[in-house]
């Protein structure tokens, strides 16, 4: 994943600074967590000097605008970032705000959508909201304890 991201950065005219490479490293290491900019900043500043939170936001915005990563914007929680550009469903836990990728067995062909509707699809994002296993267990224990009181 890192090699393809670096290649895409070069192709799109982005310099490979130590700060950008540290941000990429964290994004790749924490990809399954769909990290926030603040988490990326806290981890990346350990890897390189001269890194500011504004540099992290600027870099993530540039990578997102150029299609190298995806920015996941939310109403009720901090934006998250991911390097997985394949079609998948994000499973978002309403309790812990964790995000898990789920590769959908059925993929809608974007070309077919364009052909049938004349709508030009440029990006896709599908999310399911609910509770992860850990949070379901915690909520179940909490509700059982409340009943016993």
Q: Under the CATH scheme, which architecture of the largest domain would be assigned? A: Orthogonal Bundle
Helix-residue proportion: 40-55%
Count of all domains: 2
- Mean pLDDT over the full residue set: 89
The CATH C-level class name of the largest domain: Mainly Alpha
- Kindly report the name of the CATH homologous superfamily of the largest domain: Winged helix-like DNA-binding domain superfamily/Winged helix DNA-binding domain
Which structural class best describes the helix and strand composition? Answer: alpha+beta
Task: From the 3D structure, determine the CATH topology of the largest domain.
Answer: Arc Repressor Mutant, subunit A
Count the helices. How many? Answer: 6
Strand order of the largest sheet: 4-3-5
Shape: flat
Poorly predicted runs: none
Number of strands: 5
Q: Please outline the major beta sheet.
A: 3 strands, mixed
The helix/strand series, from N terminus to C terminus, equals: HHHHEEEEHEH
Cα-atom radius of gyration: 18 Å
Give a nutshell description of this structure.
This protein has two domains: 1-85, Arc Repressor Mutant, subunit A; 86-149, Dna Ligase, domain 1 (2-Layer Sandwich).
